[in-house]
């Protein structure tokens, strides 16, 4: 019977066949231990010299790292194994012998591993991170499906910018200027006016010349927009959403989190509601923590966000930022014209902002005033203005950066490990 490594636990004491690659091996002289992987997981294959034909023993002893094969054997329980089973091998059919595989069990530098990212993905740690990433995506879709959101796909090529063109990649769209999208938000607002509660999930691009462990040039965003939803309700949805994602990973990725050495006790505390601190109080807190140079009206950098997060065991919302440092479309606070109804969600343990969201301006005259303040042309943004002209309603939305979220949940040091093929300031290969 042909099966996969992830399903071996369902075939105890049965003889099965799997397709696999050899990730590593060791031998005691009379027994060869083959570390096998097939994409669904890892398992140890045991070849006992006295119990197999000499040709099979010779094959097992001579196989090189990343050789591909079909392996037949009997599945046995093994409490010492992370997967709970091992495979007593009775037959091997080599498909392709790998020669001089460049990534060996020894230590390699980061740049070497990044140059070989197409192969580095095969390692146990990278496999675990990608499995967690997959579960995060699955649980996000699950949350939105269960809460009656509709998926909408905004364009990647746009004629305008959501938040200014300074960090956009410019291209020519025949005889017009165009940009790679840095956010699908504006289009998602249009979709929300048609479909109520919507979300998008896709790649976004920021031409930001940053080399920090939190930044990628190309990354994936999930962006919900909700008609008839005001700021407070949006915050509640955000914390329920993040709680659902984290608890789903804890439930379904125990093995992967164990492989990664993640302290799950910290993730177990991630349950709604989340603490909140206003921008005003955050400034006060930072000054108390020794950030004497931060002044009201300045945006927070990574050290500031980390310092604020250290005061909490859960993700924390920083609310009501100054209007001047936020996007033109954010709704002013009803009691203060100098701040807006917005919030950034800061992850614990120094992983920074994972969500940015706000209530959007729904008043036509106020949006026209914002257009004038920001020098937005009627031609490029006319359609966006018309959303306030024809049946405007209160609405809110947010964007979650997938890779930062994966980094936080897995405990990865750098976001470059959280996406299959990272695009960095100095890297477009492979």
UniProtKB/TrEMBL annotation:
GO molecular function: asparagine-tRNA ligase activity; ATP binding; catalytic activity, acting on a protein; nucleic acid binding; transferase activity
Any Pfam family: tRNA-synt_2
SUPFAM superfamilies to which the protein is assigned, alphabetical: Class II aaRS and biotin synthetases, Nucleic acid-binding proteins
EC number: 6.1.1.22
GO biological-process terms attached to the record: asparaginyl-tRNA aminoacylation
Sequence ranges assigned to domain Aminoacyl-transfer RNA synthetases class-II family profile in this UniProt record: 130-430
CC per GO annotation: cytoplasm
Catalysed reactions, as listed in the record: tRNA(Asn) + L-asparagine + ATP = L-asparaginyl-tRNA(Asn) + AMP + diphosphate + H(+)
Subcellular location: Cytoplasm
Coiled-coil features, chain-numbered ranges: none
CDD domains recorded: AsnRS_cyto_like_N, AsxRS_core
Keywords: Aminoacyl-tRNA synthetase, ATP-binding, Cytoplasm, Ligase, Nucleotide-binding, Protein biosynthesis
Subunit organization: Homodimer.
Family as reported in the entry's similarity comment: Belongs to the class-II aminoacyl-tRNA synthetase family.
HAMAP family, per database record: Asn_tRNA_synth (MF_00534)
Protein name: Asparagine--tRNA ligase
Protein's organism: Fictibacillus macauensis ZFHKF-1
């Amino acid at each position: 019977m042909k099966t996969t490594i992830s399903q071996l636990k369902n075939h105890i004491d049965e003889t099965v066949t799997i397709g696999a690659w050899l990730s590593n091996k060791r031998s005691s002289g009379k027994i060869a231990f083959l570390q096998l992987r097939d994409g669904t997981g890892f398992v140890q294959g045991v070849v006992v010299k006295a119990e197999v034909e000499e040709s099979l023993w010779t094959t097992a002893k001579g196989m090189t790292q990343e050789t591909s094969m079909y392996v037949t054997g009997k599945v046995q329980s093994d409490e010492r194994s992370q997967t709970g089973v091992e495979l007593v091998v009775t037959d091997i059919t080599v498909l392709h012998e790998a020669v001089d595989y460049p990534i060996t069990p020894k230590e390699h530098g980061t740049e070497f591993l990044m140059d070989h990212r197409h192969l580095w993905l095969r390692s146990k740690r990278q496999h675990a991170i990608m499995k967690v990433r997959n579960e995060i995506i699955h649980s996000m879709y699950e949350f939105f499906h269960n809460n009656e959101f509709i998926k909408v796909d905004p364009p990647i090529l746009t004629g305008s910018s959501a938040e200014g063109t300074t960090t956009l990649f410019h291209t020519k769209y025949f005889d017009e200027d165009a940009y790679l999208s840095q956010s699908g938000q504006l289009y998602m607002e249009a979709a929300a006016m048609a479909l109520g509660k919507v979300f998008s999930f896709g790649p976004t691009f920021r031409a930001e010349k940053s080399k920090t462990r939190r930044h990628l040039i190309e990354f994936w965003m999930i962006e919900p927009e909700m008609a008839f939803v005001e700021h407070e309700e949006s915050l509640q949805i955000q914390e329920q959403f993040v709680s659902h994602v984290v608890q789903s990973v804890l439930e379904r990725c125990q093995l992967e989190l164990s492989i990664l050495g993640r302290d799950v006790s910290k993730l177990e505390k991630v349950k709604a509601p989340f603490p909140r601190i206003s921008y005003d109080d955050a400034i006060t807190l930072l000054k108390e923590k020794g950030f004497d140079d931060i002044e009201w009206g300045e945006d927070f950098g990574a050290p500031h966000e980390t310092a604020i997060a250290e005061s909490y065991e859960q993700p924390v919302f920083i609310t009501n930022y100054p209007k001047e440092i936020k996007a033109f479309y954010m709704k002013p606070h009803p009691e203060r014209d100098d701040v807006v109804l917005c919030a950034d969600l800061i992850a614990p343990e120094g992983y920074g902002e994972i969500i940015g969201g706000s209530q959007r301006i729904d008043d036509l005259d106020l949006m026209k005033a914002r257009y004038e303040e920001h020098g937005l042309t009627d031609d490029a943004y006319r359609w966006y203005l018309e959303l306030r002209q024809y049946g405007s309603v209160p609405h809110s939305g947010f964007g979650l950066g997938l890779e930062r979220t994966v980094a936080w949940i897995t405990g990865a040091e750098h976001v470059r490990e959280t996406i299959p093929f990272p695009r960095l300031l100095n890297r477009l290969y492979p």
